[in-house]
Amino acid sequence: MEKKEDVSTKMNIKVWGDDGRVYSLEDNKIKALYPGSILIIGQYKGHTVRKGLIVSDRPPTRLQLEKEDRDLRIGDSQSVMLYADLGDKYLRPAAAYAEWSVSNEDIIEIIHGVDLSIHSTDEIIIEAKKRGTVMITVTYAGETLQFPVTVK
Prior knowledge:
By secondary structure, the chain is mostly beta strands. The chain has no helices and 15 strands. 21% of the residues are buried.
């Protein structure tokens, strides 16, 4: 049986928020202060863990993609922008804070648009690797959206 070790206090943790007042970080503990989105990235011995969180008294009412129809050729890359409506009629960038998965990683690779040394970007890059059609699933604050991508 594999031995498990709690490395949470040993990780290098970086947190980005859509407003500097959303959270506080002290002794590797994050405290929510105001509504907004935060992206937590932890690194330890070459491994990276990402988790996007929403700090809100209300969940998003809907998720919206910048563009729904996606056809790519092998070797093409394309940015994907995701927006969340928190019920106040304003769309907030949410791509960097969401969890992304693809039905077949042999066809499409999801590249998180995050530069750990500077800041988080608000896009995800998808890269076409071989022919086929996949479903990409995006989850943000309990809301899920799916969309197809075809590689020709």
